[in-house]
Amino acid sequence: MTAPLLAVRGLEYVYPGGVVALRGLDLSIERGRKLAILGSNGSGKTTLLLHLNGTCKPTRGEIRLDGQPVRYEHRALNRWRQRVGLVLQEPDDQLFAATVGQDVSFGPLNLGLSEAETHERVSEALAALRVTVLADRATHALSFGQKKRVAMAGVLAMRPEILVLDEPTAGLDPHGVTHLLGALQQLHEAGTTLVFSTHDVELAYAWADEVAVFHEGTVLRQGKAVSVLSDRKVMEQARLRLPLLLELAVLLLQESDCEDWDRQLPRSREVLLALLRDRLVPGRAGRDEIDSLSDHDRYSGA
């Protein structure tokens, strides 16, 4: 079997003072997937993410990249962080240069790239996050949502294989969430593996391929999003509710005469509404509406 792109095995981490944050944690990140790390506040999500690019070093256990144990010496750590980029929840913890362009160019220049190559990467990253017009703007003058995108662009300029995001939608209004998820979806379709932490079960259901449910520093269960998020025992243990969209869809489709209803569970508000219209007003209207939706509308949760 092919080894996961990034794997965590038996990970334990104890903060100074004896606070145990991670307890024998196992996690697998497969190439090309969107993995949601789902758990309530204080469950260990952020601590895990800080281990995925070497910011923290485990007390016990190991992390493997392409099947090989990672190393923490300077050169190996730099190579690791080029492949696994981390975007923090608070953008002010990540932005430090005077202007957006300077901030996004820091990583590539630190790699020793030429000015021409750096310029290409910066332009590419700013365009991917739709913030090209902000290139000359002072970082302190940005809105919170703009800061989030610029911080992400700074990581993207390193061209990581895996993009790790800590609560990427936290603090954003609905419009900002839609635009951010659209940008991330494009990155995913271009081949970037995405890992994001959240306590938002609706986001995890609508957007992730896989979910790992966290509780008290360990993973209760990891697997396909629908399967994990419909596991009432696991969700209750993690002090989380089942996604409302999932519960409504199950109630709606279980009563239908469709043999494979569980494979047709809607992953977006638009598809669920169309199914409801089809049931409440029999006919083709709802089905035609579903058929007209793009894949992004069906599964992005927009």
Description:
By secondary structure, this protein is α/β, with parallel strands linked by helices. It has two domains: 6-96 and 161-241, 3-Layer(aba) Sandwich (Rossmann fold); 245-299, no CATH class. It is built from 13 helices and ten strands. It has a six-stranded mixed β-sheet, with helices on both faces. Strands 2-1-4-5 form a four-stranded antiparallel β-sheet, covered by helices on one side. Strand 1 and strand 2 form a beta hairpin. Helix 3 crosses helix 4 (115-128), helix 3 (100-110) packs parallel to helix 5 and helix 4 packs across helix 5 (144-156). The longest helix is centred in the middle third of the chain and has 16 residues, at 174-189. It is globular and about 60 Å long. The chain starts with 5 loop residues before the first strand and ends with a helix. Residues 298-302 have low confidence and may be disordered.
Task: Supply the number of structural domains.
Answer: 2
Under the CATH scheme, the architecture of the largest domain is: 3-Layer(aba) Sandwich
Strand content: 15-25%
End-to-end separation = 35 Å
Name the CATH class of the largest domain. Answer: Alpha Beta
Point out poorly predicted stretches: 298-302
**Main sheet characteristics:** 6 strands, mixed
Mean pLDDT: 87
Look at the helices and sheets and give the structural class: alpha/beta
